[in-house]
Amino acid sequence: MRIRTDDEVYRVDAVWLGPPKATMPWRARYVAWGVGAVVFLLVLTVERRIGMPLFWSIAWGLVATILITRIICSKISHERPLSAVTSMWVRELTAPRESTAGAGGAVSATRVRVNAAPPKRQPKQRKRTKRREGGGVRTPTQARA
């Protein structure tokens, strides 16, 4: 005996195929139309701020909107609705993070003095050493003295 699950019910998406007797050649869920409209307005705003001409901003705006909407809608489903994905994204961005900046330490560059001119060389002073007289090998009598 085979037990049927309720997955088939959830596989049916709320899809708008277009007006009667003039359906669209693609399938898009209702949520995709809403996401697409918001994304299109955001993309057009960014493109116009950049200074793109109107025709090209609309043309490339449609292409960018389709790509971005497909990416967003691939992350949402009946099990993960748009509101859950959005709240998860906001929580991920605002979550407290571990501080990576170092605080304090043994060495700090705040105390280093910087001069415009490089330091001048001091003349070397030669050390005067006493030269031993009678170089060579010492004899045992010289070593005791």
Task: Reconstruct the topology from this structure.
Elements: H1 7-11, E1 15-16, E2 28-29, H2 30-50, H3 54-75, H4 82-94, H5 140-144
Antiparallel strand pairs: 1-2
Helix pairs in contact: 2-3
Per DSSP, the total helix count is 5
Looking across the biggest beta sheet, what order are the strands in?
1-2
**Helix content range of the residues, please?**
40-55%
Quaternary state reads single chain
- How many beta-strand segments? 2
Form type: elongated
Beta content: under 5%
Helix-strand category: mainly alpha
Structural account:
There is one protein chain. The protein has five helices and two strands, in the order H-E-E-H-H-H-H. The chain has about 140 residues and is mainly alpha-helical. It has a domain of about 80 residues. Strands 1-2 form a two-stranded antiparallel ribbon. The longest helix has 22 residues. About 5% of the residues are buried. The mean pLDDT is about 80.
